[in-house]
Input
Amino acid sequence: MAPAPFNEQNVQAQKERYAAAGQGQVHAFYDSLSDAEKEALYLQLEGFNPKEINEITERALKPAQAEEKPPTVEPLPESATASILDSKQEDIDRWYELGLKLISENKVAVVLMAAALGKSLFQIQAERILKAQELAQKKHSPKEKVTIPWYVMTSGPTRQNTEKFFNGESLGDILPDETEEDRQKRGSYFGMDKEDVMIFEQGVLPCISNEGKIMLEGKGKVAVAPDGNGGLYKALYQAPIKSKFGADAATVLKDMKARGVEHIHAYCVDNCLVKVADPVFIGFSAEKSVSLATKVVRKRNATESVGLILSKNGKPDVVEYSEIDSATAEAKDAKQPDVLKFRAANIVNHYYSFAYLNGMDKWMAKLPHHIARKKIPCVDTESGNAVKPEKPNGIKLEQFVFDNFNMLELNDFACLEVKREEEFSPLKNGTDAKDDNMITSKNDILAQGQRWAQAAGAVVKNEGLEVSPLTSYAGEGLEKYNGQEISAAAI
Output
């Protein structure tokens, strides 16, 4: 909804509304601002409901008291789970074929939680989408062109550069060594149709002082922070997009409905091995007829610092490693003594039915907010002086994308265990870290390509091989290399 026009009457109404909520300090410097600054502050403040911000903050700082007895945690029931590691090949093939069929019917969409700029990760993932479309088109030969729409969620600060990157434009200081040839190779929208790639922003929430007050970044600007990956839900519901269907489909969910989408794959950008719009995962989830499903990888060991997907008090949930005692973490599976009982590591890789997301107004308001205590540069609203804190002076509010898991029944939730080496290699650390950095991600891509080529009967002369997603989605289509020696670095 568009904000009320900027005029003296509406400004006064806004001042009264914020003052009534005990947040009048946000207008402390209003009279000293230029007309343009006054309007910018007014419009920014119109994006928030101060009473609601107070309520969110209160609930986050004083969450409901935990039960006196510890929660009951168990692995998810077998009826809700499957594993690529030990499923029958016929089951995997059936899920794959169902997933391809759904893709060929244009019933599948992809949502990317990008947040930061993905650089070449965007290209890898775009090419996987293109390959999935091609496989479905060839398999089922529909009269209509197969399309997997790609909805890319960014944060406010990265929106502009993300759009420029997708447009094939120069990013200047971010990619200072990129040549014109590099940009031409990348191309606009990585070969995808522009109208099928829609970029939208997640929301923001004001930063709150330790005293519960909305903080100012400058005299005419509120300090804000992204509302967490759980902000995905509100953004799907409310954030504006440019839809080829026009104003009547100007949000993600409305565009999906106009396209006839029924199944959605959502994931985080930093996983270089992610199988975007994975037919197996789509088919598995659709066959289960669940509202929500998630992929997991097997926990490396009992001490790995990962959240776990499990059943908590009879509901699906995510429990952080710090919430589980060592005895529980080290417990073994009674049926498989060589593996951990609690081993389903969360990798933020989810399936949603469209019907479930389209009905989120029934549960979205129930999602909790979490706090992160931070050092937040700000302006002292009494003195007007800039403050550069040396210790945490406020909180940022955020939601987690899995906060809705425990609102589902176990029979409406499913979990698919996949091979870590094939599907999970996050790029989130600097090269000084041991794992999950640029070097390990590159090595995992090269190792995967070498496995695929060797499985097809090729002899790989180098240590590692990059297989373009346009050549193969998941190891298929490499038969022509049977008996050949491959000395190239990439195919």
